[in-house]
Design brief:
nucleus, about 75% helix, UTP6_C, 31 helices, snoRNA binding, about 600 residues, UTP6 small subunit processome component, flat, about 0% strand
Amino acid sequence: MADIVQQRIEDRIPALEQLERDGLFTNKEVKSMLKRSTALEYKLHRTDFITYIQVCIDKNIYIGYLEYDRLGFYEINVLELIKKRRARIGYHFKREEIEYPIIHCIHHVFRRATKNDVQLWLSQVAFNKEWVTKSQLSKILSSMLAIHPDKLVTLWIMAAKCEMEDRNSSESTRHLFLRALRFHPEKKKVFQEYFRMELMHAEKLRKQQQELEQAKIDVGEYTFSPEILSGKLAELLYRDAAQKIKGAEFILSLIQIAAIFDFTKELQDTILQDLQCRYVDDCMMWDFMAKSELDAAGAPELQSAKGRASDTDRREEQTSLNSRKSQIDMYCLTVDCSLFQRKERLLRVLQSAHDAKLLQETFYKNWLQVLLSSGDTVSATQIAITATQHFSQSLEMWIFSLQTLVHLESTEAGHLFQEALKHMNPKESLPLWQLQADWSMTSQIPEDTETLFQKGLLSPVPAVSSTMKEKYLEWSYKTGGYKRARKTFTGTHQINLHEHRPFTRTFFMKMIEIEKEQETPKMSNLRDYYERALREFGSSVEDLWMECIKEELGRHGNPENCGKLHWRAVQMLEGESVECFTTKYALLQTGHM
């Protein structure tokens, strides 16, 4: 094994020497690279391939060559580092002597690695996309599919996309899709992308024909097939797919793909006729047909505005409702289509579905939006309250209805907030408390707002209690200034905020900011706030210690306390926080922070 490793290392030496001669690396770095290469080559014999060739996800972060050893991203990162240093010094020569041996080395490692891991193949593909030729990438994708033909559909699509876009080979792309269908005969995605490819191929040929005709170039006996130019290959593929994959949703997806191309009207009509014949009971088909009719209603073919309106009304409200699907689905589709038309007709459909108790939550929101835009505040208030009764377990419905009442400045808002808190799970009630607090601070008298905060502080849900505590302190400062905020914090009220758990770091920082905003902030108060914060979060938040130390270094502080704070922080912090704190403290001492 040692002989093999030594041979491979010796093969690397010329490239490393060239790096040093060209000034891209120092002698010390070259020696370090050689040492690291030797260690990793020995690891390869223990099948530790991924460590050796791992692709760094974020290639925009570089902290020096010596850091690469610690990160474990080696060979590919060496290439990236060379690339950056070339750009820095403006040296762009001798790539064959420098980069090519490293690329060859990485390829060699991939070839030696096990091929059972799809992720390893994808890493190789990602590397080749950036560093090697398109032909080489095509070979790698072919090898991958030969070993893993039945794993992921996306692998086949990726390979086909490479052939179509990078190598401009429609024939190879078609061959890949046909092979993919052998292993995945009922996968929608394969048919959809194959269908798209055939239309793209036809579009490319049409553009070539047009350019040749415009240039008046004689192509001899070569002719463009009218069948291919009109998308007949895509139509044949559609017929095959429709036999294997059932469902209106799949057929509609093909229509949407065909609609992208401007020469497929005949193909779209063919697919649409099949859709109407095969899926007469499918609500998705009727939904599509209704929307299509709405689009047609705005077209020039209709002779008059009156004709357009009446035709649209009739088609929109009747087409969907005449199908054999359930009434609730048809109401949904009717409402969805109605959103494109006049408000009067939409409101009529919404009211009809509401009366039948078939209106879904989403459409109550649409209803409220239409009523608000129409200025019908009375109906909007009534519907907002009714919607919460129908969907009393929906947090989104409660919030939307409450926001509506708040916007309308309705007197029913306070009662509805109480109802919402009764019906919703306390663990999910935080958004309701936040919305109610915001409403109360702007719409209610201070006594009622303070009562709300006192109630929120007693919530058994930690998130609610801590959030209300922060809002309470902020509101106290806005309404009563520093003295009221200080009084709220220190607890001459019924509840002592600074003793009432749970705490958040934001709560303490708000009080610190309030103190620092004063003309003559008291350092004794700041120390008290920081001490309380450190008592709760000092074991995990190194930044809190740094902020406290900076405060002591400031105009009102005492720099002699910094040493004590540093000692306490090192003793109290846990895990990686200790190292982070030590680094930041050193930077602060040297003036780099």
